[in-house]
Amino acid sequence: MSLKLGFQGSERLREIGLFGGLGDEVLQDLSGSLDMIELPPGSVVFREGDSGREMFVLLDGEMEVLKQSKRKHETRVAVLGPGDWFGEMSILDVLPRSATVRAVAPSRLLRLTAHDLDSLYRRDLRAYSLLVLNIAREMSRRLRVCDNLLAELVANVIDEYTRPNRNG
Q1: Would residue 152 be called left, alpha or beta, if left means φ above 0 and alpha means ψ between -120 and 50 degrees?
Q2: Rounded (10°) CA dihedral 138, 143, 144, 147
Q3: What's the pLDDT tens digit per position in 133-159?
Q4: pLDDT at site 163
Q5: What are the CA-CA distances from residue 2 to residues 19, 132, 149, 153 (Å)?
Q6: Which of 89, 106, 111, 156 could form a disulfide with 35 if both were Cys (CB 3.0 to 4.6 A apart)?
Q7: Over the stretch 2-34, which tens digit does the pLDDT of each residue have?
Q8: Are 91 and 55 in contact (CB under 8 A)?
């Protein structure tokens, strides 16, 4: 089911990092134009490999991000809560979805399409730039987390294989 956030929605958007730095007028326009989606638990927003030209902001609820291994084993790689956003990679790089996202609890999402971003670009270049910069900052933060996890994994593997054998 698709709804609009409505008049009070600009206050809600102000609390979300994606919209940080945007003015009242832009927030009001977005809250009146972006679709809101309500999902029950178990609903899949999109699947790994799907094409997509939209991203989502989690207003309420909880989502899980699942990644499939080459052996077709699905692993939870993240849990998202209110204020988090996802799906932005498909808007930026136009490649298939890199993961599956599924509702864990009843959830409300805001849908932001490539068309919505293009409209913002044409109306207000400053607001568009701030929004894209906010996306880039979050992607940079996520990359740092992944770098740290990878470093720990590699260090643990090296320790395991270079440790002297105590059994023999």
Answers
A1: alpha
A2: 170
A3: 999 999 999 889 888 888 988 888 888
A4: 79
A5: 21, 25, 37, 42
A6: 111
A7: 566 655 678 899 999 999 999 999 999 999 999
A8: yes
Q: Which two tokens stand for residue 7?
A: 């008049």
- Distance between CA atoms of residues 71 and 74, nearest Å: 9
Q: Residue 68 — φ and ψ, nearest 5°? A: -100, 135
Record the pTM.
0.84
Q: Say if CB 94 and CB 84 are below 8 A apart.
A: no
85-86 and 54-60 beta bridge pairing? antiparallel
**Of 99, 103, 91, nearest to 48 (Cα)?**
99
Q: What are the C-alpha distances in Å from 94 to residues 17, 49, 155?
A: 23, 12, 34
Q: Looking at residue 106, what is its pLDDT?
A: 98
Q: What is d(CA 68, CA 19) in angstroms, rounded to the nearest whole number?
A: 31
Residue 32 corresponds to which tokens in the numbers above?
């009146």
